[in-house]
Design a protein that fits this description.
By secondary structure, the protein is an alpha/beta fold. The protein has helices at 13-16, 24-35, 45-48, 52-62, 76-89, 100-104, 106-110, 124-134, 209-213, 221-235, 251-261; strands at 2-7, 39-44, 66-70, 94-98, 117-119, 145-148, 154-156, 191-194, 197-198, 217-218, 239-242.
């Protein structure tokens, strides 16, 4: 099965004013799927600055078996248009939505008949199990999904337990066009991104992150340092963005990382 991950052709100056950002979530998901034996591709339409015509050309040329997109609220209209195009250009392809907006608003997203599944919350295990089930299993047995029942109604499968170990996750860094990623403040730089932790220890009412990620969980400093060294040595990354909501609640763990960086 060929899996195509697409960042939607959404563009906003406030997001793109300082640099071209790595789609870390897709690198993580593609890494998990590839480790399970699937052929994966990433098309970062947002970073490439392209529109729907270029996205459709990519879909038409690759003819994927599965297309997956991620949604935040502002990108949802464009993500829906991407999946609508998939159904028109590759009628047999399975369409999957994920991300924070789709996870909370799955009923709204599944109202579009050309969207087959929504992955709720963390996607590494859910997406792999869904792909395996599409090869002959039963998607209704996969935890962490929104899908359609036989009568067309939308139903949720049981919630997916949170990942308890974030170390040694397979990452598909080689699927990126690295020349696209740069930090504008440093001409000629190559910009990467890492996540030391997921979630937050607080539960502020205005913020959705604690509801999406659940409890705060962190990688070992040694595992993160290994990834930073790999990004530098293999892909010449010399600027690193930390994507954490709150990387420092455990002082000893954070100081250990700083010592390793030094």
């Amino acid at each position: 099965m060929k899996i195509l991950f697409i960042t939607v052709p959404y563009h906003a100056g406030v997001v793109e004013v300082a640099g071209k950002w790595v789609p870390l979530y897709m690198v993580t998901l593609a890494g998990a799927c590839r480790a399970a034996g699937f052929e994966c591709h990433i098309y970062d339409a947002m970073t490439k600055g392209v529109g729907m015509a270029e996205v459709e050309r990519q879909i038409r040329d690759l003819q994927p078996d599965v297309v997956a997109v991620s949604m935040i609220t502002s990108t949802t209209p464009d993500a829906i248009e991407v999946l609508r195009s998939v159904r028109r250009l590759c009628p047999a392809a399975v369409t999957i939505a994920g991300g924070i907006h789709a996870s909370f608003m799955y009923d709204e997203i599944m109202a579009h008949e050309f969207i087959d599944y929504v992955v709720i919350g963390e996607g590494e295990k859910t997406l792999v199990e869904l792909l395996l089930s599409l090869q002959g299993g039963e998607p209704k047995m996969v935890s962490g999904l929104a899908l359609r029942d036989a009568d067309g109604s939308v139903k949720l499968t049981p919630p997916r337990p949170l990942l308890t170990n974030l170390d040694n996750m397979p990452m598909a860094w080689d699927l990126l066009d690295w020349q696209d990623y740069t930090y504008f403040i440093i001409p000629g730089s190559r910009l990467g991104a890492v996540a030391f932790s997921r979630g937050c220890t607080y539960s502020c009412r205005f913020c959705s992150q604690h509801k999406f990620w659940g409890q705060w969980r962190a990688r070992s400093p040694e595992d993160l340092m290994r990834e930073i060294i790999s990004l530098y040595e293999e892909f010449q990354v010399n600027v690193i963005l930390f994507t954490d909501d709150y990387p420092t609640p455990e002082r000893q763990r954070w100081e250990r990382l700083l010592d390793l960086l030094i």
